[in-house]
Amino acid sequence: MRVISYNLRKHKASGELEALARDYKVDALCLQECDTEDLPESIGNLKLADATRGNRLGLAIYYSTDRFTAGDTKTFSLKKSVHDRVLAPAHERLIGTRMVDNQTNHALVIASFHAAPLTASNSLRRNQIHAAHGELLSMGGGLMTLMVGDFNYPFFTKYLTEQMKDAGYELSLSDRRTYTRYKVFKGHFDFATSQGLVIEKVETLPRGASDHLPILISAEYGQNPE
Description:
Order of helices and strands: EHEEEEEHEEHEHEEEE
Number of domains: 1
CATH topology: Deoxyribonuclease I, Chain A
Number of strands: 13
Strand order of the largest sheet: 3-4-5-2-1-13-12
Mean pLDDT: 91
Radius of gyration: 16 Å
Number of helices: 4
CATH superfamily: Endonuclease/exonuclease/phosphatase
Distance between the termini: 21 Å
Largest sheet: 7 strands, mixed
CATH architecture: 4-Layer Sandwich
Strand content: 35-45%
Low-confidence stretches: none
């Protein structure tokens, strides 16, 4: 399974999506900071599962209809930072779609996540990540889960990795940094958490119009968490 996650920087990189889907032969595409009113129903062979509606910085999931049959999609609000309360960039910071693999009949949840910005604390972002995992469990307990996106967590990722492990999730960073716009903020902002999957590799793809670099997650099915 090949999944790309990309923060579009307020939709500025939207023109790159068709080439990314084609060139990397992805099975799913998870977006952050997109203008959901300007999203097409399909990108190449990928179909829009759903997108958030109330966000200035929207989230969306596309999937290959050859590979998957999409079930329910849900969006979730998470604990708000001061930034959220003042500027209201995102009412919903998580969107998840339940999928069934047409080839193997495996069921799983694929999710796009956007954590609070660096103006918030790491503890708040950890709260959001744990809450997001809990919300995704409501879509089907025991399902394999892949949550990708902009975690805004470039520092102290070792502690976050330990927290995820204790909660039964694997945190997977990419092979190169995903954000290099400002020297002080260089690091892995975009990565994946998973349960029940074997993450083979996470690659940072070439820079486009966004200040984030897209990442490509390659995964295989492991065992259901239960």
